Amino acid sequence: MNRLYFGDNLKWLRDRREFPNASVDLVYLDPPFNSNADYNVLFREPSGAVSQAQFHAFTDTWSWADAAETYHAFIDNCPNVAVVELMEAFHSFLKHSPMMAYLAMMAPRLVELHRVLKPTGSLYLHCDPTASHYLRMLMDGIFGAENFRNEVVWKRTTAKTLMTRRLPSNHGIRARFSRHMILTISNEKTEKKYSFRDPDGRRYTLGDLTNPNRNRPNLTYEFLGHHKVWRWTKERMQKAYEAGLVVQPSPGAVPRVKRYLDEREGKPLDDVWTDIAPLNSQAQERLGYPTQK
């Protein structure tokens, strides 16, 4: 489905015809806080008029006067007792602060996002250190602390001018949660390449065993009815064949070697990202969205 929704995201998330339970594979959200900015309207109604819902959705100002009703409605209606108790604990020490207003806005949205996320799905929440610790606790309550996966640190800029009271901020934070303890890696391109499976489930592809260098007398011999220049010695070839690593894809075919997916070399992705440059004014993918990453 390729569809763009705009306006108050909570209104859309609560529309169960559009977003039924366990219907979403991936959620990425970047809710701003303390940016002291009123973001410009990007979309208009079909009539061409400015969308007021869109305008308010991107105004980064938080006050308890606006959030009090949302907070009390959430406390009265949320079925998750642990989350209600957590929000009440926040309220007891944050009082009627902008941070509490922000959490009152985020809580019902995170509850709905948890509802629509598939059991195999993941949620990535991008935030800065201003509110990340509160949001992490809130998500522990909603998703379960056992479903926290990673805190990803994105080094987004070079260091700024030295500050006198604190170190300059030089990174963003992404908290990654999943719906349940189900971690399935699915890559269509990889699965297509490694399309064969052993009885134990290991994926493999078949590689060439012939030698491109034809002037190798010591590697020239007959094997399984094929006289060729091979990459391996005859002794090594025979041992690999007996171990089941060299096979004939079909009767009489040229022997090939199994190359297993789980033995493929590569650098695992970790939780510190330093190689993703921020968008600049000349980037082709820039859309003019104020907080686009």
Share of helix among residues? 25-40%
Indicate the low-confidence ranges by residue numbers. Answer: none
Rg for CA atoms: 28 Å
The total of helices stands at: 8
The best one-word shape is elongated
Keywords:
single chain, 293 residues, alpha+beta, 2 domains, 5-stranded mixed sheet, 4-stranded antiparallel sheet, 8 helices, 19% strand
Task: Give the topology.
Blueprint: H1 9-13, E1 24-29, H2 52-57, H3 64-77, H4 81-94, H5 98-116, E2 117-127, H6 132-143, E3 148-155, E4 171-178, H7 188-193, E5 196-197, E6 203-207, E7 220-223, E8 226-229, H8 234-242, E9 246-247, E10 256-260, E11 272-273
Helix pairs in contact: 3-5, 4-5, 4-6, 5-6
Structural features, described:
By secondary structure, this protein is an alpha+beta fold. It folds into two domains: about 10-185, no CATH class; about 190-260, no CATH class. Helix content is about 30%, strand content about 20%. It contains eight helices and eleven strands. A hairpin with a 2-residue loop joins strand 7 (about 220-225) and strand 8 (about 225-230). The chain starts with 8 loop residues before the first helix and ends in a 20-residue tail after the last strand. About 15% of the residues are buried. The model has no long low-confidence stretch (mean pLDDT about 85).
Produce a short descriptive summary.
The chain has 293 residues and is of the alpha+beta class. The chain has helices at 9-13, 52-57, 64-77, 81-94, 98-116, 132-143, 188-193, 234-242; strands at residues 24-29, 117-127, 148-155, 171-178, 196-197, 203-207, 220-223, 226-229, 246-247, 256-260, 272-273.
